[in-house]
Request: fold
Amino acid sequence: MAKLLKDLYDEKYIDLLSQTVALVYKNFDTSLFQSALFNNSWNTLELKERMRHISLTLHQYLPQEYKQSIPILKKVFSKMNYSYGLENMIFQDYVEVYGLDELNISLSALEHFTVNSSSEFAIRRFIIKYPKESMKQMKIWAKSENEHIRRLASEGCRPRLPWAIALENFKKNPKDVLEILELLKDDTSKYVQKSVANNLNDISKDHPQIVQSLSKKWLEENPERVAILKQACRTLLKSSDTLSLELFGFKNPKGIELRDFQLDTDVVLGEELEFSFTLESKKRLGKLRIEFAIDFLRKNQKHNKKVFKISEGEYMQNEKFISKSYSFKPISTRNYYKGKHHLSILINGVVFMQKSFMLH
Reply:
């Protein structure tokens, strides 16, 4: 069985944390700290709850003055920096809880703690309380030599960052965010590029026209940005948005036929749904984005559509056979309900075929 995320905070990590703090801060009582930490509620806490519980408990056994505790935690983090990533976000959480009234100290701490970890959640509280000062600092971070710090400049101001508090002002007006992304649009780090794309994808959910216009401009300036912009426009592309599809050369697929469509009419929960078809054209097929969509039956007996990409590219041949499957193995992120579902085949956003199947 796979290890649960919350169990990243196991006895091994807590013991290492305790011993490292004690090395830096001689008055730290490791026994009392661990005893207070592993209380009766520990086993019921999820990942972020455990993270917060650790930072709150740490505070009890460190100097109560924030200006004194942060230098200690910086030294501790540096010693543990290359051993843990996600787990070490307790340090940023500490800043979020206790440092909101100390802007400069906290921004410096978040810059330090983001390396090989991430301060993307904690920085958002500072953006909300100190928008001008925080975004000014993030422009400086966007020019850092360290990719982790540059990524923080983008990831931290995502309007809709998952698991994080939304930045409502940026959902309404992403102007300040776009200024950060302009600085990072040609970043050499894949880590940063992915963050820029995710940020733009967030923005596209509230302002599709802005992202479409920006993508067009960036592509005209430099066609090599196509990969990052496809990722940025993925929600628009999956929604079959015509302007976005045409932006990447996926035009109306005239002259193409779909034949020999085969689909399992029945599938059992835990098994795979299999389907196949052939695309045919009198001329070469050309540039295609081939997708399938499943209208999943929900608990309320309505359907919820999800789109999945099969392939895309420039097809020089005039015929292409495609065989694909979808697993109905239970997963934590989606519940399946028995009954009639629908599967569609989309070519450049256009529905070419739809058939139904039963999930048992």
Residues 66-80 form the longest helix (15 residues).
